Amino acid sequence: MLQRERKSIGLRTVQRGGIVAAVAAAAMSIPMAATAEETTITAVMHSSLRVLDPITTTAHITRNHGYMIYDVLIAQDENFEAQPQMADWEVSEDALVYTFTLRDGLLFHDGEPVTAEDVVASLERWGNRDAGGQLIFDVTDSLEASDDDTIVWTLSEPFEPLINTLAKQAAVPPFIMPARIAGTSPDSNIDEHIGSGPFVFVEDEYDPGQSVTYERFEDYEPRDEAASWMAGGKVVNVDRVIWTTMPDSQTAINALNSGEIDYLEQVQVDLLPILEANPDVTVELRDPLGYQTMGRMNFKHPPFDDKRIRQAALMALSQEDILATMMGDPEYYELCGAIFGCGTPYEDESGAESLLAGGDQEGARARLEEAGYDGTPIVLMQPTDVASLVNQPVVAAQALRNAGFEVDMQAMDWQTLVNRRASMDAPGEGGWNIFFTNWQIPEINDPLINVMLNGRGDEGWFGWPEDDDLEQLRADYIAASTEDEQLDVARKLQAYALDEVIYVPLGQYNMPQALRNTIEGMIPSPVPVFWNMEKRD
Amino acid sequence: MFGYIIRRILGVIPVMAIVALVVFLLLRLTPGDPAAILAGDSATAAQLERIRESLGLNDPLHLQFFNWIRQLLQGDLGTSLISNTDVSQMIGRRINPTINLAVMTIIISVLMAVPMGVIAAWRHRSWIDYGVMTFSVLGFSVPVFVIGYIFIQIFAIELRWVPVQGYAHPTQDLMGFFQRAILPSLTLATIYVALIARMTRASMLEVLGEDYIRTARAKGVRENVVLFRHALRNAAVPIMTIIGTGFALLISGVVVTESVFNIPGIGRLTVDAILARDYPVIQAMILLTAGIYVLVNLLIDISYSLIDPRIRY
C-alpha cells in the first residue's frame, strides 16, 4: 500500500514536472505567427544579425539591416552614380560649400519628421567611424542645419568624391537616424532602432542570432524613380519580412524546396543541383559583381617587408588555381586582376599578368634569389570555420612552397585569425605574415573606400604599409576635379599597388541566390533589398 | 531528508564559484576578440582598441571578474557584448525550445526503452534480446545528424507528413509544435533509447536472478507483475540515473540536432556565443549548465529514496 502511494506520488511528481516545464516553456515568448491575410516573406540570409548598429560595424548583414530601416541622403545606382534619395544637393562654384535640401514627407518610424538637425548628428557620428567620412571631416570647416530642411556643409578645401562617399553602400553608409540616437558615442552601440526607411524594425520579435522581423512602414513615401541598387523608389509590396538563420545549408535548401521559406540569399555551389531540379524554385545571380578574394601581406616584418619578396609571392600565385578550388564551377567565378574589381568604372588589370596567366613560378624563384630570401618561414593563417576562406590558404601555401618559400600554414578559427591579424608582433611571437579575405566589390571599388590602399602605417588596415607615395595618390584622387582625372589616378594606383604588392587580388566569385517562383520583382543589387518585391499566392 | 536537501543546496555555492572562476579565466586565455566581431572586417587596429576600451575589455582581469561577480550576485547575467541584449532575456527566449525538446525526447525514450530493456532481459538470449541489443549498438554508432537527415528525407520530404524544419510555440500552435518537434525528438531519442534500454536490460538481468523474484514466481504472481512491480522497481536506481543525466545533457544543448532541424535552442546560442567570443553569454550558459547538472543530480538522489525505501538520507 505504501509502495502504491509512493508510486502514485512519483507519477504525480512526474506529471507535475511536465506541467511545470510546459508552463515555464509557455511563459517564454517567441515571435507571433503572422496572420493569414498578411504577406510575409521569410528569408534565410547569409549570416545572422547580432549587431544592430550600422555605424559601428562593417558587417554586411548589419549594413543590409541598415538599408531596411534607415534611409540615406544620397544613394548609389547600378551605374555607380550618386542619386538623390532623402535630399537633393547643390555645390558652390569653388566646390567648398555643399547644400543639401531634404525632400518633403520624410518621417521617422516614431512619427517625428526628419530634420536637418537629425542629418547633421547622423553624419557627425558616421564621420567618426567611417574611413571616407573621417577624410571629409578632416577638411570640414562646418556642418550645420541652416533650417529644418537644409544642411550646409562647408569645406576648407575641395573634396571631389564627397557626394560619392555619401552615396556608397560599403563600410559604412551614412544612415540617417534621429539626433537623440545619433548622439550615442560612436564607440558604443545604439540601443534604439528607429529610422526613416521603408521597413520598421520589430523589436519584440528580435532574437539575436536567430531571427529579425520587419514590417512595412506605412508612412514611407518612396521616390518616383524606378528602384536601382540603393537608389530610386523603395516601394514595399509586402507586409512583413522575416530574416531567419539556418546554420545548416542542407536544412535551408530543404526548407526552400518545401516552401517553408521564400528566399535563400546564398546557395553553396555544390548544393545547386538539388534546387535546380525543383521547378518551383529559381536560382539566379542577384549581385552583378560578386566578391573579390584577396591576400594581404604584413609589411612590418621579414620577409614581406622586402618589396622583391612580396613580388615573388605575387608571381607564385595563380588566380585560376585558387578560384577553381574555392568555387568548382567556372560559371561562378572570373579571373580579375583589377584592385578595384572588374565591372567597375576603375577596372584595370595592369600589373596582374602573372596572376591571370596561372602564375610565374620561374620568375618567382628568380625574384626570391635576387632578394636573398633566407628561408624565414612565412606564417600563413588559415581560417577553418569559414567556407569561403578555407581554400585560398591551402592553394597559396603550396604555390609559395613550389616557388621556394618556407611556409608555416597555421589553422585556426576565424575569430582567432581576426584577433591575431591585429597583432603587430613578429610572426614567431604571435604575429603573422599573410592572410586572405573577401570583399563585396562596392567595398573596394574606389581609392577611398578600399581600406587596403591606406598607406598610413599603424593607423591603416592590417598589414600596415607605411607608404607616402600611396597616400599621395589617394590625395591626388581626392583633389582630382574631373572624372577623367580621377580615372587617371585610379590607373596609377592600380599600377602602383600591384608593383608594391599592397595586396594581391585573386579574382572574383559570385554566390547564387534562390527563391520561390512566387516571389517577383527582386532588383539586382549587391545588397539584397526587399522593396519592389512581390509575393504571389 | 530536508536537512540533506539544504546541505546539498548549500554545497552548490562553492561548486558554482569554482565554475565561475574557471570559465572566466579560460575565456580570457582563449584567443579571440569580441571587438573584432563588433567592428567588422574593415575596422583598423585603432578602432578595435577604442571599442575594447568602451566595452571594458582593457580593464585588469581581476576588475572584470569582480564586476561580473557583483552583477551575478544582484541577479544580473549581464549584457551581450555583441548584440547589446540582456543575457537573461536571450537565454529565456532560447531555453523554451530546448526544454520542450528535452521533455519530449525523454518521454519518447522512456516509453520505448524501458519496455524494450525489460523484455530483452526477460527473453534473455532470444531474438528479441539480440534485436534490442543490435538497435542499441546502432543507436550509439550512427551519428545523430545522419539519423536526422534520414528522418527528414523520409517523413518531411518524401511523405510530407511534417515540416522540414523550425519550431512552433506549443501555446500558440500546439499541432505545429508537435509536427515540428517530433522528428528532432525521435532523432535524439534513438541515442537515449539505446542507452536506457541497455541499462534497463543489464539492471533487470541482475535483479531477475534474485531469490525474491523466484519466490514471487513460485507464489504464482503474474509474470507482468513480477517484471514491472518486483523486478523493475528494484532495478530502477541505475535507470533513473541514466534518465536524469540524459535529461541534463539534453537541457544543456544539442547543437547538431538544433542545427539540422533549425531549432532556436540554447545549444546554438552557446556555440554562436563561443564563435563570437561573447563572454557574458558564454559565462552565463556555462554557469546555467553547471547549475542544471547540480540540480538534476540532486533530483536523481531524491528520487532514489522514493524508488527504494532502503535509501535514506
TrEMBL record, chain A:
GO terms for biological process: peptide transport. It comes from the Bacteria. Residues 84-442 form the Solute-binding protein family domain. Residues 1-36 form the signal peptide. This is ABC transporter substrate-binding protein. PANTHER family: D,D-DIPEPTIDE-BINDING PERIPLASMIC PROTEIN DDPA-RELATED, PERIPLASMIC BINDING COMPONENT OF ABC TRANSPORTER. Belongs to the bacterial solute-binding protein 5 family. Pfam families: SBP_bac_5. One of its GO terms (cellular component) is ATP-binding cassette (ABC) transporter complex. GO terms for molecular function: peptide transmembrane transporter activity. Transmembrane segments: none annotated. Keywords: Signal. The keyword Signal applies. InterPro entries: Peptide/Ni-bd, SBP_5, SBP_5_dom.
TrEMBL record, chain B:
GO terms for cellular component: plasma membrane. It is a multi-pass membrane protein. Pfam families: BPD_transp_1 (PF00528), BPD_transp_1_N (PF19300). Keywords: Cell membrane, Membrane, Transmembrane, Transmembrane helix, Transport. The chain crosses the membrane at residues 9-27, 99-122, 134-157, 177-197, 237-261, 281-307. One of its GO terms (biological process) is transmembrane transport. It is found in: Cell membrane. Its main location: membrane. InterPro entries: BPD_transp_1_N, MetI-like, MetI-like_sf. PROSITE patterns: ABC_TM1. Gene3D superfamilies: MetI-like (1.10.3720.10). This is Peptide ABC transporter. Belongs to the binding-protein-dependent transport system permease family. Coiled coil: none annotated. Residues 95-300 form the ABC transmembrane type-1 domain.
